[in-house]
Specification:
The protein is an alpha/beta fold. It has two domains: 221 residues, Rossmann fold (3-Layer(aba) Sandwich), CATH 3.40.50; 270 residues, Ribokinase (UDP-N-acetylmuramoyl-L-alanine:D-glutamate ligase). 43% of the residues lie in helices and 15% in strands. It has a nine-stranded mixed β-sheet with strand order 12-11-10-13-14-15-16-17-18, sandwiched between helices. Strands 4-3-2-5-6-7-8 form a seven-stranded parallel β-sheet. Helix 8 crosses helix 18. The structure holds ligand NPW and potassium ion (K). The site of potassium ion has 11 residues, from strand 5 and strand 6. InterPro entries: CARKD, Nnr, Ribokinase-like, YjeF_N_dom, YjeF_N_dom_sf. Belongs to the NnrE/AIBP family. It comes from Cellulomonas wangsupingiae. One of its GO terms (molecular function) is NAD(P)HX epimerase activity.
Length: 498
């Protein structure tokens, strides 16, 4: 499990150590230089004689960068620091000069322009313009340098190591403004930051290395990412004397005569994730049974529900079934996944064991229905903020689907999962995910209804397993939603052994 902490929490945790004279910047710079040396050795086969350029901003982020540059210069690296502000961390600058690093300034656009060639020829560029003190996108000459580097072809671009965070991202909310230099590696200090987990900023971070500075962080982290090893503790694994009803029966109200595939895929997801039994309601019964003869078609007792996938707005019959099922779930405290065609059936407030699974467009529509002036693009620019808004307005746990899936529940529970390959953006994958989550909620129904933050953890686990199954389905290549469902049992088995 990877915890991230916002800038204020990190600063508060740094205070007592700084007051005690702990050399935090020295530790950060040493770790940074060590990582950069490793990058150079991996990429160029050597450290000494290679070229490193430092983009240096006005704050301590620039200070870290200069100190690391000094350590690298002492190992024979040709280091050039590009100062982008009138003010520069004095100790860092002195250390670099003492180590015979080269220092140039780019205080206006023309000077920045003149340095573009130098930067492009570096083996590694360290992005030390802004850290946790940054406000908005990079401004001034630094912005020009970032734009020049960002415009280079991937093959001609030096490797980029972001210092603490890629400069210009919204450290606490994962937004990005203006040009951000996409990093191959981010070396972050003291704790992971939300921007390194949340879309869209996290895409700029590359691989993330967290350097332990000995900070004592308390309270709830801002955003969490589950790791493979966390799944076993959340998964409903049957005991030796379990039978199908104890293991959880999932009611599925999905699909239609026109869209039978959504029902088939959702049921595949639930069965692949190990649900005890599925009861299906809807016009796609024959197709569901043809694919999964073990399904029972019709009404009956269930422990949890999945509602709305592949249900068209004009399908009155199936919408009525979904509405009845939702009312039943709410009246009896049964967890429910509410997807696509059932999202507009929600009452004003629901408990957190109701889990909404919209994509960005559906989340925007849900917020608009509740009076917010929000477009799909707004949601994509700030997914976490909008998922939180939807949770605040409805009370539901919200799983916002995307390349990185964001989950928000009560009491500040937030997760960001980026487990699947980009190939997973394929028709029907969301239906499979709904089935996986339904299986988890059915298997842990009473706990999910009693522990307000458990549904969010289960939703994050469902996203992780779904993503893993996509890797299993066809490592490195295209996948179909059905292929992902078929790979689920193997993915779950692997994770339960982890
Ligand atoms: N605390 C510690 O002990 C440790 C801290 N550590 C390191 O310190 C970093 C935080 O340092 P920091 O607080 O100095 O802030 P930082 O991000 O370097 O720069 C802020 C400066 O940039 C400016 N500025 C702001 N926005 C801007 C924009 N959009 N475009 C352009 N300029 C902008 C703003 O100036 P202003 O505009 O306000 O005049 C301000 O002066 C942290 O990320 C980590 O790397 C580690 O060494 C571990 C120990
Ligand atoms: K940075």
């Amino acid at each position: 499990m990877l915890h991230s902490w916002d800038a204020a929490a990190v600063r508060a945790a740094e205070q007592p150590l700084l007051a005690a004279g702990v050399p935090l910047m020295g530790r950060a710079a040493f770790a940074l230089a060590t990582h950069v040396a490793r990058v150079l050795r991996d990429a160029r086969g050597r450290v000494g004689g290679s070229r490193v350029a430092l983009l240096v901003g006005s704050g301590n982020n620039g200070g870290d960068t200069l100190h690391a540059g000094a350590l690298l210069a002492r190992r024979g690296v040709q280091v050039t620091a590009v100062l982008t502000a009138a003010r520069t961390h004095a100790g860092g600058l002195e250390a670099l000069r003492a180590a015979h690093g080269r220092v140039v300034t780019a205080l206006d656009d023309a000077a920045a322009e003149a340095l573009a060639g130098d930067l492009a020829r570096a083996d590694v560029v360290l992005d030390g313009l802004l850290g946790i003190g940054g406000r908005g996108g990079v401004r001034g000459p630094g912005a020009r340098l970032v734009a020049q580097l960002a415009a280079l072809d991937a093959g001609a671009r030096p490797l980029v190591v972001a210092v603490d965070v890629p400069s210009g991202v919204g450290v606490d909310d994962g937004t990005r403004t203006g040009d951000v230099l996409d990093a191959d590696l981010t070396v972050t200090f003291g704790a992971c930051k939300p921007a390194l987990l949340l879309p869209p900023a996290a895409a700029a971070a590359g691989r993330v290395e967290v350097v332990d500075l000995g900070l004592h962080l308390t309270g709830r982290p801002a955003v969490v990412r589950l790791a493979a090893a966390d799944v076993a503790g959340l998964w409903p694994v049957p005991g030796r004397d379990a039978h199908k009803y104890v293991r959880g029966v999932l009611g599925v109200v999905a699909g239609s005569a026109r869209y039978p595939g959504a029902a088939v895929l959702q049921v595949s997801g639930a069965i692949g994730a190990g649900v005890g039994m599925v009861r299906y309601q809807g016009a796609a019964g024959p197709q569901v049974l043809a694919a999964h003869p073990e399904v029972v078609v019709g009404e009956g007792r269930v422990q949890a529900w999945v509602l709305g996938s592949g249900v068209a707005p004009d399908d009155d019959e199936q919408r009525a079934r979904a509405r009845d099922a939702l009312e039943h779930a709410l009246a009896h405290g049964e967890p429910a996944v509410v997807d696509a065609g059932a999202l507009d059936l929600l009452p004003d407030r629901v408990p957190p064991h109701v889990v909404l699974t919209p994509h960005a467009g559906e989340l925007a529509a849900l917020l608009r229905d509740r009076g917010a002036d929000v477009t799909r693009a707004d949601v994509e620019a700030a997914p976490w903020a909008h998922a939180r808004r939807a949770h605040e307005l409805t009370g539901a746990t919200v799983l916002l689907k995307g390349g990185t899936t964001v989950v928000v529940g009560p009491h500040g529970a937030s997760y960001a999962q980026a487990d699947g390959p980009p190939w997973l953006a394929t028709a029907g994958a969301g239906d499979v995910l709904g089935g996986v989550l339904g299986a988890l909620l059915a298997g842990r129904a009473s706990q999910a209804a009693a522990e307000p933050t458990l549904p969010a953890a289960l939703a994050a686990a469902a996203a992780l397993v779904h993503g893993r199954a996509a890797h299993h389905a066809n490592p490195g290549g295209p996948v179909s939603a059905g292929g992902v469902a078929a790979a689920l049992p193997g993915a779950v088995a692997g994770l339960l052994r982890a």
